[in-house]
Amino acid sequence: MLSTLQPPRCSLSRFTLHLPSKPSFFHSKQTPLSTPHSTLTDQLPTSNSSQPLQSQILSIRHSLLSRQITATQLADSYLNRLRALEHHLKSFLHVSETVRSDAREIDDKILRNEELGPLAGVLVAVKDNICTAGMPSTAGSRILDGYRPPFDATAVKKIKELGGIVIGKTNLDEFGMGSSTEASAFQVTANPWDLSRVPGGSSGGSASAVSARQCVVSLGSDTGGSVRQPASFCGVVGLKPTYGRVSRFGLMAYASSLDVIGCLSTTVADAGILLHAISGHDTLDATSSKREVSDFTSQISAVDSFESKPLKGLRIGLIRETLDKGVDGQVNSAIRAAASHLEELGCSINEVSLPSFSLGLPAYYILASSESSSNLARYDGVRYGNQATADELTGLYENSRATGFGSEVKMRILMGTYALSAGYYDAYYKRAQQVRTIIQKSFRAALDENDILISPAAPSAAYKIGEKVDDPLAMYAGDIMTVNVNLAGLPALVLPCGFVQDGSSNLPVGLQMIGAAFDEGKLLKVGHIFEQTLADCRFVPPLLADDIVG
Amino acid sequence: MAFIGMRSIQTLPLLFHPAVLFSRRKKIMYFSVKASQSQTATQEKQRPIAISPHFDKQIIDKISKDYEAIIGIETHVQLSTLTKAFCSCPYNYGSSPNTNICPICMGLPGALPVLNSKVIESAVKLGLALNCSLSFNSKFDRKQYFYPDLPKGYQISQFDVPIASGGYIDLDLPIEYGGGHRRFGITRVHMEEDAGKLLHSESGSYSQVDLNRAGVPLLEIVSEPDMRTGIEAAEYAAELQRLVRYLGVSNGNMQEGSLRCDVNVSVRPIGQSQFGTKVEIKNLNSFSSVSRAIDFEISRQVLLHSQGQSDQIVQETRLWEEGAQKTITMRKKEGLSDYRYFPEPDLPEVILTKEYVDNIHDSLPELPEMKRRRYESMGLSMQDVLFLANDISVAEFFDATIARGAEVKLAANWIMGDIAAYMKNEKLTINDIKLTPQELAELIASIKGGTISGKIGKEILFELLAKGGTVKGLIKEKDLVQIADPAEIEKMVEKVLVENPKQLEQYRGGKTKLQGFFAGQVMKASKGKANPGLLNKILLEKLNAKS
Predict the structure, then answer these.
(1) Greatest C-alpha distance within chain B
(2) Pick among 3.20.20.70, 1.10.150.530, 1.10.10.410, 1.20.120.430: CATH of B486-545
(3) Chain A contact for B335, CB < 8 A?
């Protein structure tokens, strides 16, 4: 069926990747690099063939344990790059002041030959709507300007317990409401591939920071695509786990029934390692699942162990509605090329139709706005955050919220309040819930027939800053590929699969793989094999090759 | 004695001076009640309140015959769980402001609620005790409004699917109000969380928020509009209090706000099927204020009706003013407030299994209504029944006493009489006294068996109440065994007659009343130990022997 499509490698191999001569932060057997960090790759034990060669987390672990580098040196190299790039990118709202001391603690442990956690020394950036004790957590909103939570989100707590170091807090659309990070109250983040373009959103800071190697991995949050779309725009891996897989405790709620904390990384293996670290039931989140967390990293094997058709027998469903009109032609080609690549790996590709797909967008915006109108009611200026001076109570509420919230947030609160109002509830909220049920059923049916569904992660590559800022409907339409997955609560992995050319820019395109609930393991396995066999296609933004970094 | 004791246990302060009293067609009597100075068995104290007659009683008496009041009650019961509904904070009434709080009950960003399973257990217990049908699949909803004591901007509650609905409650009205059995319908029982409290500065220029109470679990119980009088409403509330205390789900203390009643009252001409305009009354923190506020409100509405001014009865919330003994307008309802309820996405559905419900059902204690019917079948008077079943601790003491063989009526009399009086004087509950049911049964048996006299029995009782010990031990220690040897008593009688020749002469001269004098003297000589029957028999023989 797909044999008429253009051969997969063509679109990818068009680009001769400029390999950076200065510090480079991806690892590959083919490109031995001279920087201290990169040379670590070559030292990876070859005896353990099951270890993925490209995982930054594993290579950091190896180089720390073999004492080729100290955690402090590693932290310094990341901090230096972070600062060097930050005035171009503005990925971070806050950089931790304790990174070096945290790293020294790891070094002390190494000196004392103590057990090291699996994330020891790994520099993790955290989206600013995820609470971090002792660090500002603003959700990109003026209403929380200067707010420092007294507790760590469960995901952050787990990362710290496993030795990870929080390097800073990343920029986002206010409370996660937006698709370009332009709705941050504080700054606009740039896309490392083209500084005049948006990094996507709402986890734009987290995606940009990983893409530019300002951190090793990062946490984002995904309510309607906020991890996956920026991953696609920035050419990194974005993993949205099944709803309930990761505790939401400490994630500032936007839409509680849709919100999940997700992972951004440069490799599928790292996304799997980070997901494993933060997954599991949490007594502080009643919606977190009690299902056992399998070891996702066991799905990750080395390239040289692959058979000729490593994915033989795997049934892949290409969602027809996601390649309809409205989708950029080059994106369409990149996705079809990716499908052909999967076919070459042994998968069978079937086009599947999800007729309810287009209903997801309006249903999503009604449900998410409704829940947000309730979740954001707590920002009233009484206990914390922005408090306006007022003569009486109503004035306190009105002024605190009017000056604290940005216009996108206000618009969604108003839409949600409307949808939940007496007389409108049945026509909007209830109807949207019914649509949600239909979408869940249609996904279930499609995933009975297929192991994995694929689609683009977004209908286009990264667009220009300011391009859609005055056209909210166009901005919302960009979420069409991702919102259905949140409505169904399913896991999805986005990984870079190719490029589109726009003017002088090469912009990465992300492939979205959707799996059955709690089947992240399969997504990671397929994603890893896809990634490892995508020869000559390296997703390192040119920014890193330029002298900027030097 | 027994009567005073009963006052001290009755949760409903008794009527001393009915201010407004009128009979109704359906033979239901109702009263406006004046507060007494009585005190409940546990903690509640009623302040003495002067009655203020606002209306001409006789006019009201006359016109009220033509009207009927419809009363429904919403009750909030604060559960005595160790921790709050959705976090692990404890709640202790009277703690310093904002000392029992955490990120969850403060509504900090990122905090999530996790349901305390004891809340469901309590709701199921109360639902079963109120004869409700349970929803095996219910959920929580968010009720949204802005107020500084509501940290999240919404209250977690239950909206369209309450955990229990369609039940009823049985109660017996006190004899003083004509007695009678009543059954009132229960519309629904649902779970929700309490809000914090506002503390207003004396100057009125600012207010402070205390979130200690925020997130404390509540059960809201909504009655059918089945009550017709203030007394019925107060008795309904009192029975609910009894029930939650029997079940151990709440301390039911109105003064601390653990049991709060909001009352809806409307009045309609008798024969009219349509309800009149409903008025809600708040700030009722005792059963007597429930009763008095309702009767005031009925009178107010009846008067307006009778004067052709029924249009002045508007849907509003009125406040009961304890000092002035009247209701005043708090806020007029401007249409229905829109709480924009929607299902709480942070909490999973509440699923009950049959096994879970059956287990709770089987573990329920004997409830007040069952106890009253059992006591009644034992031959006790309704007055005794109501007294004993009122307080679960008293009932348990009584049950334990008769389980040890004490005669039912005697046990009831002792408990309602001297024991209740002692508790009242010493401000103790039955759990505080040193007397055990075992010893009370022993005391009753000793008197009945003639080992000691009733008078000695009382002395021993007070010793046991205050210091404990055993009946046998005290009898032995104080040498209190009754003198039942006729020869010994005869000796004492003769001695008394010899020592009082003048009185003996007067007696024999016809002043037979003096028999009491002699009996007293002999008893005194025996240090109270003489068997009274025997004493009187021998005394009479001797007094009349030579006449």
Answers:
(1) 101
(2) 1.10.10.410
(3) no
Tell whether A529 is covered by a domain. Answer: yes
Of B518, B526, B535, residue with least CA distance to B456: B526
A437 to chain B, any CB pair closer than 8 A? The answer is no
Q: What are phi and psi of A290, to 5 degrees?
A: -90, 0
The parent domain of residue A315 ranges over 8-21+59-358+435-543
CA atoms within a 13 Å half-sphere pointing along the CA-CB vector of A119? 30
Question: Closest to A421 (Cβ–Cβ): which among B108, B154, B340?
Answer: B340
Residue B85 phi, psi (nearest 5): -65, -35
Task: Look at residue A66 and tell me if it is in a domain.
Answer: yes
In this predicted structure, what is the pLDDT of residue A503?
Answer: 87
pTM of the model: 0.86
Token pair, residue A481, equals 């590929």
Q: Looking at chain B from residue 102 to 131, which residues have their Cβ under 8 Å from any Cβ of chain A?
A: 103, 106-115
Cis peptide before B165 (omega within 30 of 0): no
Mean of pLDDT values over A470-477: 87
Specify the pLDDT at position A300: 78
* CATH number (domain holding residue A287): 3.90.1300.10
Q: Is residue A127 part of a domain?
A: yes
Question: Using a CB-CB distance cutoff of 8 angstroms, which residues of chain B are in contact with residue A434?
Answer: none
Residue A194 near chain B (CB below 8 Å): no
Mean pLDDT for each consecutive 10-residue tract of chain B (547 residues)?
A: 32 32 31 31 35 56 84 97 97 94 97 98 98 98 96 98 98 92 98 95 88 98 96 97 97 95 95 92 93 95 91 92 91 78 97 98 97 96 95 96 95 95 94 94 90 85 91 82 84 90 88 89 86 87 76
Does the annotation count A202 as an active-site position?
yes
Q: Which residue of A has its CA nearest to B206?
A: A392
Work out the minimum CA distance from A419 to partner chain B, whole angstroms. 9
DSSP B466: H
Query: How many angstroms separate the CA atoms of A146 and A254, rounded?
Result: 20
The Cα A64–Cα A44 span in angstroms is: 11
Structural tokens at position B115: 């349901």
Q: For residue A153, which residues of chain B lie inside 8 Å, CB to CB?
A: 110
Whether chain B has a CB inside 8 Å of the CB on A425: the answer is yes
Burial class (CB in 10 A: 0-12, 13-18, 19+), A84: middle
Tokens for B490?
């005869």
Spatial separation of the C-alpha atoms in residues A296 and A261, rounded to whole Å = 17
Q: Active site residue: A11, A59, A109, A127, which one?
A: A127
Of A378, A420, A422, the CB nearest to B151: A378
CB atoms inside a 10 Å sphere around CB B514: 18
Per-domain residue ranges of chain B: 2-48+55-356, 366-478, 486-545
- Record: contact B114-A284, CB cut-off 8 A: yes
Q: What is the DSSP string of B60-82?
A: HHHHHTTEEEEEEEEEEEE---S
A468 is catalytic: no
Tell me what pLDDT residue B474 has.
86
The answer to the question of residue A252 being in a domain is yes
A180, A202, A232, A247: the active-site residue: A202
Confirm or reject contact between B153 and chain A (CB < 8 A): yes
DSSP A267-307: SHHHHHHHHHHHBS--TT-TTS--SPPP-GGGG---GGG--
Residues of B in contact with A257 (CB under 8 A): 345
Nearest to A167 by CA among A224, A207, A209: A209
- CA separation (Å) from A482 to A233, A239, A254, A371, A459? 13, 12, 16, 18, 10
What's the domain count of chain A?
1
Q: Estimate the crossing angle of helix A407-420 against helix A360-375, to 10 degrees.
A: 100
